[in-house]
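Lab notebook, design round three. We kept the backbone fixed and only want residue identities now. Task for the bench partner: fill in a sequence for the structure below.
Input structure tokens:
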């Protein structure tokens, strides 16, 4: 017997769905983890072959590193006996008690122990300045720039070198060492290289022949020799240009050499950004009645520096790693401190040197990776602002 509710409907209308079908999830090969893997690793035959080759290489490299640094590593001990192989333990990994025992030496070098609080204060002030400058939404960033570029260098000199009139004992730079020296050299090179590099880049593009010639000679000469050569020249020749009474010590000579070397490379990075700016931007600055320096500061340089952020950060990362070369002129940097500590008879084992170098590699990787990630974030933020019309 027919249903009275459907008796008056046309034939077949009772089988029509009156409610929408619930949405089904997309196919696994279109969206989701499998789709991401297919799109990024197995999109074509060459991609698949490269993925397999990369997986084989990682399988060959990563497990031994993990075994050495973590699984087979020694975590406790008071001397070399804890890190030596035994019949019960034939495979011995990293000797981390050595790093823990010599950690203070890695940080301060031979800096007097009672005065090491000054180094800690320097690190704290530097961290505050870096955080203030790198935080794009920080309040009073102009005041932060004054603190970072003027106040911090003056205070740091008195803190680290000493000021007897202020009750701070004099500490000769020959006693400086370890991470402290690496941070000082890298910070000076990074901070000084950008303004000098901008000046050299503008000078190379100057319409005044003498200024352009001097900038070209300096840039090409410095870029044409290794950093070690520049450090030797700064260490040997710089005292010849000043009276013997005012001859700078080895650390100041190394700082000058690193700053000049990094400035030459930064000049070419900035010049590339300036050349990428369309000619219309220069004409727009002129149409606004802006002079050369105001036009550069308000219109041209902000765009040029934004374009070259990846290259600037790349130069900074290279500079930070190149600070290890200052040991050739007698500067006791972080890597040199590890070199000296690893030959201590108390910790003389077959894995001590490898452990020290692994610790240095981890430190440099973390710092350089952090610099790279921050630059990527800034670049994305500036790109998003440019899309919204905000320069």
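Proposed sequence:
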């Amino acid at each position: 017997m027919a249903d009275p509710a459907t008796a008056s409907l046309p034939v077949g209308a009772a089988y029509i769905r009156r409610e929408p079908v619930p949405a089904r999830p997309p196919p696994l090969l279109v969206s989701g983890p499998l789709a991401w893997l297919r799109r990024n690793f197995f999109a074509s035959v060459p991609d698949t072959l490269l993925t397999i080759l990369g997986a084989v290489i990682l399988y060959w490299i990563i497990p031994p590193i993990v075994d050495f640094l973590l699984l087979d590593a020694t975590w406790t001990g008071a001397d070399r006996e804890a890190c030596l192989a035994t019949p019960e333990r034939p495979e011995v990994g990293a000797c981390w008690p050595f790093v823990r025992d010599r950690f203070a030496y890695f940080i301060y070098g031979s800096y007097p122990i009672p005065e090491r609080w000054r180094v800690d204060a320097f690190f704290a002030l530097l961290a505050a300045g870096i955080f203030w400058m790198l935080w794009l939404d920080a309040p009073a960033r102009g005041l932060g720039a004054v603190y970072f570029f003027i106040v911090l260098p003056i205070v740091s000199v008195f803190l680290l070198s000493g000021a007897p009139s202020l009750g701070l004992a004099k500490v000769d730079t020959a006693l400086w060492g370890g991470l402290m020296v690496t941070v000082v050299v890298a910070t000076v090179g990074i901070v000084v290289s950008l303004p000098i590099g901008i000046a050299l880049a503008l000078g190379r593009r100057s319409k005044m022949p003498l200024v352009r010639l001097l900038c070209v000679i300096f840039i090409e000469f410095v870029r044409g020799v290794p950093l070690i050569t520049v450090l030797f020249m700064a260490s040997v020749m710089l005292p010849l240009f000043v009276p013997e009474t005012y001859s700078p010590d080895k650390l100041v000579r190394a700082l000058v050499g690193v700053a000049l070397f990094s400035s030459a490379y930064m000049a070419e990075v900035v010049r590339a950004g300036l050349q990428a700016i369309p000619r219309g931007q220069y004409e727009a600055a002129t149409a606004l009645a802006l002079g050369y320096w105001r036009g550069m500061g308000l219109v041209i340089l902000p765009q040029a520096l934004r374009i070259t952020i990846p290259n600037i950060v790349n130069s900074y990362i290279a500079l930070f790693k190149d600070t290890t070369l200052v040991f050739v002129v007698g500067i006791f940097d972080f890597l040199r401190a590890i070199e000296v500590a690893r030959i201590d008879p108390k910790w003389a084992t077959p894995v001590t040197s490898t452990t020290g170098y692994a610790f240095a590699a981890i430190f440099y990787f973390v710092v350089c990776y952090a610099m790279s990630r921050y630059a990527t974030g800034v670049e994305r933020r500036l790109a998003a602002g440019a899309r919204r019309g905000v320069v």
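Keep this in mind before ordering anything: Residues 113-162 form one domain.
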